Amino acid sequence: MNAIPGGPFNKEKAANPATLAALEARYNLDKPLPTQYVIYMQRILKGDFGVSLTNGREISSIIGESFPVSAKVGICAAIMAIIIGIVLGSIAALMRNQWPDRVIVFLTTLITAMPSFVLATILLYLFCLKLGWVSGFEAGTSNIVLPVFALSLSPMAYITRLTKTSMLDALGQDYIRTARAKGVSQLKTIFVHGLRNALIPVITYVGPMIGSILTGSLVVETIFNLGGLGSKFISAITNRDYTLIMATTIFLAVIMVIANLLTDIVYKLVDPRIKLD
Q: Are residues 213 and 203 in contact, defined by beta-carbon separation less than 8 angstroms?
C-alpha cells in the first residue's frame, strides 16, 4: 500500500507542510516501514486496530456497523444460491439430455460467464430505469432483493453444475443399484442415498463461497450503495486509508478461515466415514 502514489492526507487542496508532518508523526507514517510494521503488529496483538486515517473513527466501530449489512445480504444470497443450485442440479441430473437439462445448462453457463457487477448493472437498468419497480438505494436500506439476486446468481450457477455432475456420478454407483434392487422407493434412493453422497463436492465449494459472500461483494455493494463492509473497503483503498484497509483484510481472512473450518466439520456430518483427526 505504501508503494501506491499518494497518501491518506494528500487531498485536492494541498495541506500545509507543517500540518502534513504533524499528521504523519501522529500516525507513525514518518517512520521507516519496518518500524511501522512492528508498531502495527504490537497493536494488533492487543486487539487494537487503530483509527481511520480519513475520519479518525475507531476501526472496530466501522466494522461493527458495516459488517451486519454485508452479512445480511450475504447470508440471504448464500441460502438462495445453495437451495436453488442443488434443486436445479438435481433436476438436470435426473432429466439428463431432456429439455429441462438443456435449458438449465444454457442458463447456468451464461450466468457463470457474466461477472456479478455486470448482473448488478443489468438488474438496476431493468428494475429501476425501465420498469420503475425500485426507486433507488440508500445506504443501509432494507431493500436488498436486487443485491441478493445479483450476488447469488453466479454461485448458484456453479452449484447447479457441480450438483449435476456429482449427482450423475452418484446415481451410477453400485449402492444405488443395490438400493433399487431391494425395492427402495425412487425418492428415497435419489435424495437420501444419491444426493447425500453427491453433496461432498458441493460442500467443498460452498464453504469458501459463504466466507467470501458473507463479507459482501466489493463492487456490488458499491453499485447498490448498501453501506456494507465491501463499500467501506473500496472507499478505504480510494482514500489510502491504510489502517482500515489492513483491518478489513484481516477481518475477511478470519471469516474465510472460519468458513473453511466449518466446512471440514460439515464433511463429518454428511459422510460419517470421514475422520476428523
A: no
Return the beta strands (E) in 83-180 as ranges: none
Q: Can you tell me whether residue 51 is helix, strand or coil?
A: strand
From residue 146, alpha-carbon distances to 65, 82, 166, 250 in Å are: 21, 17, 30, 28
Q: Give the whole-angstrom CA distance, residue 43 versus residue 274.
A: 40
Rounded Cα distance, 74 and 229, in Å: 11
* Residue among 156, 72, 78, 81 nearest 111 (CA): 156
What would the pLDDT profile of 156-207 be if each residue is shown by its tens digit? 998 998 888 888 887 777 777 777 777 777 667 777 667 777 777 888 888 7
Q: Which residues does residue 160 pair with via DSSP β-bridges, in sequence order?
A: none
**Separation between Cα atoms, residue 105 and residue 233, nearest integer Å:** 35
| Cα–Cα distance, 64 to 181 (Å, whole number) | 56
Amino acid identity, position 212: S
C-alpha cell at 94: 435426473
Neighbours of 268 (CB within 10 A): 12
**How much of the chain, in percent, has pLDDT values that exceed 70?**
84
Q: What is the pLDDT of residues 102-124, one digit of tens each?
A: 898 899 888 888 877 788 888 88
| First-residue to last-residue Cα distance in the chain | 39
